[in-house]
Write a structure and sequence with these properties.
single chain; about 55 residues; mainly alpha; 1 helix; about 90% helix
Length: about 55
Amino acid sequence: MTPAEIKELAREIAREVVVEQRRQELAAYDTTLDFDQMAKVQRAKMRELKRAKGGQ
């Protein structure tokens, strides 16, 4: 391989690494949103149960 080919290959690998990192960050963010949404639903259910039992 010539130095130019090696340099181009290194650039391609770097691009792939960055793309994968971004994908993982977005996946982690989506999971966080899912957990937040589930927590909101759980809190709403608890409020409804308290209301149904005559609590505040």
